[in-house]
Amino acid sequence: MNTKIRAGGLVVLLGCILLPFLSSHAEGKLIARWTFNESTEDVSGNGHSLTLQNGATYSTVSAEGSHSLLLGKTAYASAGSIDLGETFSITSWTLLNPEQTNIQTIIGNCEGGSRIDGFKLFVNNWETSNKCVIVEASDGVDRTDVTSPENTFEEGFWNHVAMTADLSERVVCIYYNGELVSDPSLVVPIFQTIQPIVIGGMPPGAVYNWQGMIDDVAIYEGVLSEDEIVDLMNAPSQVKAGDDDHLRSPQSIVLDQNYPNPFNPSTTISYSLTDDNYVRLQVYDVNGKLIANLVDELQESGSHHIPFHADFLPSGVHLCRLEAGVYSAMIKMVRVD
With 50 as the cut, is the pLDDT of residue 221 above it? Predict the structure, then answer.
């Protein structure tokens, strides 16, 4: 298992590898998949490559693989028209910068507006920061908002967001970190499913943009079950040809919350390793920019305590990432004045 979301928002991740993994239940059903490992290639082989727009780029703060899609302001990534079919599922990893207000779009195939034919998957209702995860579906006349409860989405951490659509039954469901969080009894309009896809904004792209990072977006034929979504969320998603590292038992990496937190101006970052390993400990801002490289060396197993003096940092949220071998972990730290 390469991804575990722990209490307090700790994320443990499997590191960089190359070839797309499909669990047996999803094999052959991929419509498109973008891993953003410094590439916009559709790794499903179906030719739906993306184009980065308005300054969209890559970040080494990732949920899967080596990089993620770094967005902000009006940045987005666009694909051509994709036929989603009558039934489809979308899975994604998403990290939203803290304290965002207004609609934050993950993916969609229609313009912003209350009754535009198509769908949009996003966080926050219009001009709010209520942290709902929402699918807005419209046939151009009628509209249904499928939504999670308020305060579902946690900012500043990687979250797995998925949606399924069955237009023959007129049902759309939302899954957050593997759990169904919407009402499956809602009836949705039969919306258009053959239109250009945009990630990180609403078509044509430069509105309601995602402020943060998006990683490993996949579109499947058919409706995935909750168990299948959990399997995909937890499965080792990429395997390097000829590399047997993925066959080893997972290591236990513990990255504790820094103490004190919030802090001013210094704090201590503690972690433990079960094996000797090459360790990299880095601090990033919420936009994925590297701020400090605290550790970059081979370390022995056991507990380690690293002081971090942040006189030069502005107040706000910062991310601390630990990498040890093929595993990594991340915490959120808050600097106050």
Answer: yes
